[in-house]
Amino acid sequence: MGRNEVGVVVVGAGFAGLYMLHRLRGTGLSAVVLEAGDGVGGTWYWNRYPGARCDSESYYYSYSFSEELQQEWEWTERYPAQEEILRYLEHVADRFDLRRDIRFGTRVTRAEFDDGTGRWGVHTAGGQRWSAQFVVTAVGCLSAANIPQIPGLDGFGGDWFHTGRWPHDGVDLAGKRVGVVGTGSTGIQVIPVVAEQAAHLTVFQRTANYSIPARNSPVDQAFRDEVKAGYADIRAVQRASTNGHPFLISPTSALEVPEDERRAIYEAAWERGGLRFRASFADLLVDRAANDTASEFIRDKIRGIVHDPATAEKLVPLDHPFATKRPPIDTHYFETFNRENVTLVDVRATPIEQITSTGVRTTAGEHELDVIVFATGFDAMTGPLLNIDVRGTGGVTLRERWAAGPVTYLGLQVAGFPNLFTITGPGSPSVLTNMPTSIEQHVDWITDAVVHLREEGIDRMEATPAAEDAWVAHVNEVAARTLLPEAATSWYLGANVPGKPRVFMPYAGGFAAYARACAEVVADGYPGFELTSR
Ligand code: NA7
Predict the structure, then answer these.
(1) Which of 496, 497, 500, 502 has the most ligand 1 atoms within 8 A of CB, as the residue to mutate?
(2) What are the residues whose beta carbons fall under 8 Å from the beta carbon of 520, sequence distance 6 or more?
(3) At 99, which CATH number?
């Protein structure tokens, strides 16, 4: 093969791309990873905002594929901070000698399938062209920054930043008047830290959010030893679970237990902290009355923490049930609104009209600011893929295929795009799970598929339109059995990005059920895929 001709182009060198490259070694296929950033890490390379931290616990927000790796790495905190995850991924890149096949500073702009040769042409912003039999996207689900189109931003006299594109040398906020727009998981992490640094912080909230205390703390050697001795069981529970976490959802209905007992269960979960709160009862995401008990518990907590009753009422979420948007976890988020230097602005009641040269003007007046932080999230799941001009058979673009919302088979392939695999694509459960668990499953599945094709002398694999239709119908049907589509402002639905089709994108049937469905496809000889040789 010539220069720039490979078996596989992998796009992205985060958790997914690194493991994909590792697995491709030994398959006989040559591979290159094209990465826009100047280093590995993906999400954890870009999201360097103050307070950036994972909401999964460190001991399981990690790869399971190498026993040596999981035994040798020492996590220092219950929830890993951005720097620590980045260090871990850099370690993985070095330990498995991955860097030699990664091209950094290389942004993929276009990928087109050539019907004649049966190969993909992959083009980069720097004018390179790669030719590959397979393309695997490892571009992340939350990597295309959503920066609101607010009139006047260009004329703002201060500095502004999106949290997902934070400057690598940091931003000095000391003595500054700072505005944070957005109160999702990111806003809820950044707000308490900025409040401590800034002279004054103004929080612009559109949708009030439920949040559970994280209860972060250092981890000691005894905990690390216990985890390392128990990894086989921990990983087994993760793979058998709904969300890829090493705990199972309680089998008990919230409505089955007496009120005092239910309250005690919520109190214990609140004290323990973290995403496990969501697993307190079996039916929190499927039964509105059950969910109400959790939603009401958290609303009471907010009212108890926030001193000023008017501010507390603005912070109490009323417009969606708990956990129908991705629930954040926090370190002193609600407490932050008791500080003298913090103001909460409800931009649903008084919308932002304009950014002026000196600040943000809402319908209720102007807030003077030196710095604006947009914690406004991402064009989730589809954005990173559609930012690449992907063209399949007959020159049809992915943008055309997905004009009414994304369609996939198993979240892994799109009909009309042969030999293109999408790690954590829409229609997969990834964003509802602990990401590395889903990523490992997707990468293993894709690796098995390409090995199968090689062994069988097949050179083209493509989802059939019928299999895609059936999977999309199944994804919709599963979502409709839950309360998840009820959150009208959720990024799961694409509702955070103006003009984006409203389609519930993730597979909500749980990680274990999804992995089983994928394994059955393999065991049955890849039904739903057309496998052809030239
Ligand atoms: P999210 O969860 O999408 O949160 C973004 C926040 O920004 C949310 O509160 C939005 O309000 C708000 N937002 C977005 N656009 C605007 C405009 N134009 N005006 C005012 N407020 C706005 O993103 P995150 O980065 O916090 O978290 C993403 C995921 O990362 C998270 O779910 C975890 O999986 C990890 P809205 O709720 O849309 O009314």
Answers:
(1) 496
(2) none
(3) 3.50.50.60
